[in-house]
Amino acid sequence: MLMGKKKSNKLNLIICGIAFVIMVVVLFMEGPENIFGALAKLNPLFLVLAVLCMVVYWLAEGIAVHFAARSLDPKIKFRTTFLVTMVGQYFNCITPFASGGQPMQVYTYMQKGVSLGTAMTALLSKFIVYQFTLTVYSVIFLVCKLPMFTDGDLKPLTFLVIVGFIVNTIVIVLLLMLAFFRKATTKLAHILVRLLGKIRIIKNVDYALEYIDRELETYYKNFIFIKSQPMMIFKMFIVTVIQLMVYFSITFVIYIGFDIPHDTDFFTIISCQAFVLMISAFVPLPGAMGAAEGSYAAFFKPIFGDYYTGVSMFIWRFLTFYLPIIVGIGINLKMAKSGVDLTNAADVMKEIEAKGEQ
Question: Which parts of 29-43 fold into alpha helices (H)?
Fold first, then answer.
């Protein structure tokens, strides 16, 4: 089982590496002279500012998680939470639907002496606040800017944007249902599990029901804490608002850095970036590979033009996807030297759960 997980992580990294090579090849198909010419016109100060935006994004993530972690255990240091944050960024990038981040974060917290309950509650608090904040942003962008793209070449993408918004909304609705309608949520989960059992998608229905009940119980206990900390949640919300705004602004910084007529406003660019994120939300590949690059090129080509779109997409994708992977590999190697093997974290979590040692 442990070897299977290691192979899975290695395979995901190989896939990410192949995607990077493909992106570079496609970029150079536009002509090396065009690429280097566009890069030559990029103000280095704005490139540095774009990198700093990504660093601020990571710091904001860590600060928001730390609000919750410190409210549960005042002895937790921010450097521990920031390490956990970067571990999550790495595994979110290399796993489909960003599903691998949270288990690895919990495991890393535990390796630093933080209890399983504290780790899970802090990370769940951040997840809920992040989903809620993203939904608020999405509503604003959809209402204010999506009508601009309902005609012309971008019309087919508007459907995907709406689907992505629905996916995010469903997640936050289910979380709120669990918080305030525990029995109804449990019954709904049981109905879905039994339905999936009848159509042979789930083979062991009894085990699935027990697992669902156990997970829902854990989440509900965490919600009790969350509901008792309104000021903490508000502070996490404010930090997450800043975090997402900084993330959406990376492309705008790149846009300003190029020597092109700047006739597109800030709000339009961050709206396009939010639409790219919505489309990426339901693509079952690490980092939504292909969908993220394709939707970026489609939304930003009218803004950057043929000459700058490919280069801007490469810079944006490198900063938001490949840079966290590079940093994460460095963290993994450093932790491995100290005896912490993150490649086994998910399996260790399963073993802890099976033994009932939470």
Answer: 32-40
Bridge partners of residue 286, in order along the sequence = 96
Q: Which sequence spans correspond to the domains of the chain? A: 2-18+43-355
Side chain identity, residue 182: R
Q: Closest Cα partner for 317 from 282, 280, 283?
A: 280
Compute the Cα dihedral for 127, 128, 131, 133 and give only its sign: negative
User: Residue 227 has what pLDDT?
Assistant: 82
pLDDT beyond 50 at 357: no
Contact 340, 111 (CB under 8 A): yes
Which residues, including other chains, have CB under 8 Å from residue 89's CB and lie 6 or more apart? 58, 61, 101, 324, 327, 328
**Residue 358 per-residue DSSP state:** -
Residues in the chain: 358
pLDDT in tens, 181-233: 888 888 888 898 888 888 877 788 888 888 888 878 877 877 888 888 899 99
Residues of the chain by 3-state class (helix, strand, coil), percent to 5: 85, 0, 15
Q: Is the dihedral of CA 8, 134, 174, 63 positive or negative?
A: positive
Q: For 294-300, which contacts have Cβ atoms below 8 Å and span 24 or more sequence positions?
A: 295/157, 295/160, 298/153, 298/154, 298/157, 299/149, 299/154, 299/157, 299/272, 299/275, 300/251, 300/269, 300/272
Q: Whose structure tokens read 């410190």?
A: 70
CB 309 within 8 A of CB 74: no
Is the torsion defined by CA of 261, 267, 270, 274 positive or negative?
negative
Decide which of 351 and 271 is more confident: 271
A 10 A CB-CB count for 57 gives 23
- CA nearest neighbour of 182 among 232, 229, 216: 216
